[in-house]
Amino acid sequence: MLTTLIVLFGLGIFFFFIFNSGINANTRASFADMITGEAHRPFVTRVFLPWLTRGITALFPASVHEAAKTLATSSDFMGSLLGEYNTPPDFALEALISLGLQLLCVQGFAFAFRGLFRKVYKTPALISELVTLMALIGLTPMLFLGYLYDLPTLFLSTLGLYCIAAQRKRSYFLVLALAVLNKETAIVLAAPAILLFWDLQRPTFKKVLFGILAQLGIFLAVRVPLSLLYRDNPGRNFEPHLADHIEMFQDFPIIGVISILIAVGMILLVFHKWRQKPAVAVLGATPGLLMLVLFVLGGIAFEIRVFYEVYAAGLLCIMATLMARKMPLETSLPTMQEWLDSMSAFFGRQVKQTGNL
């Protein structure tokens, strides 16, 4: 029953996103330009969904393209849906395929998060189902502004964290490659991924170094060719928006103060008694502090969609805080304190070995 509710809630979140986010409305990152590779930088380099859409579209004959175009103009519902998706009629088939992929990403996030919660915490199935529903509802404030790559970012980041919690190295490397193909900021997964290469009983420098270099190699192998491929597109890789935040505070001081209080409250909920929380959750959420700084410097005011990469990890930490008194969440994974103790022993051995040289 609750699984059915998760699917229905996911469907609701999908339609809420499409009809409220203004997705593809930015003329510098329009749907047609993203699909054809003519959008501005940095948007155009986020190619996972556009390339996947183009690849699937290429499998269909011209008659299907025409049928999709006809459907878009003859059906009020489809016309409205594609209108909200800001799609020209000539790209009707691409839009339908893209919408299907967006829906799969929402559902994929929900079930990846449920699996992640079950891996991290030892709870009855009912609790994991209810928390997953909360995770879907909690997305709502983030859905009022959106781009083509947002829902894939949410899904792939959560799936990557699941692979880390489940100690699936090969699967993680594949997910990481897809995630950085989708958006460069997915490299923040490297923080919790150190646990994949960390033997808690006796960590070794070689394994840790291999993990760091492997992830760096994947990131460079994906992002450098994309940067070169689209180097002549208009735009730039970073846009300063600090002045926009200052102007927002001047024009709407009350909203600005409320935003700061909410941010501080969220940080406190995430990091309260952080040493007792699962290391995979805390390390997964910690890059959010860096992303907060980048948000202030380069993000648009109220654009909290930029935190999709750390949403799942942050929610794991928040749930541990909220349930600490009534129903403390137990974990079978290493806590931050256990990891820190292991790290101290690791560095102690390194210093000792260096002294013996």
Main features:
17 helices; mainly alpha; 357 residues; globular
List the helices and strands and how they pair.
Blueprint: H1 2-20, H2 31-36, H3 48-57, H4 62-74, H5 76-84, H6 92-120, H7 125-138, H8 150-165, H9 169-182, H10 190-193, H11 205-229, H12 242-251, H13 253-271, H14 279-285, H15 287-298, H16 308-322, H17 336-356
Helix pairs in contact: 1-6, 1-7, 3-6, 4-5, 6-7, 6-8, 8-9, 8-16, 9-11, 12-13, 13-16, 14-16, 14-17
Write up this protein.
- This protein has about 350 residues and is mainly α.
- It has one domain (about 1-10, about 20-350).
- Helices cover about 70% and strands about 0% of the residues.
- It has 17 helices and no strands.
- It has helices at about 1-20, 30-35, 50-55, 60-75, 75-85, 90-120, 125-140, 150-165, 170-180, 190-195, 205-230, 240-250, 255-270, 280-285, 285-300, 310-320, 335-355.
- The longest helix has 29 residues, at about 90-120.
Summarize this entry quickly.
68% of the residues lie in helices and 0% in strands. It has 357 residues and is mainly α. The protein has one domain.
What portion of residues belong to β-strands? under 5%
Number of domains: 1
Radius of gyration: 22 Å
Number of helices: 17
Helical content (DSSP H or I, runs of 4+): 55-70%
Q: Tally of extended strands?
A: 0
* Overall geometric form: globular
Q: What is the N-to-C order of secondary-structure elements (H for helix, E for strand)?
A: HHHHHHHHHHHHHHHHH
State the end-to-end distance: 63 Å
pLDDT below 50 for ≥5 consecutive residues: which ranges?
none
Biggest sheet overview: none
- Average pLDDT level: 93
Class based on secondary structure composition and strand pairing: mainly alpha
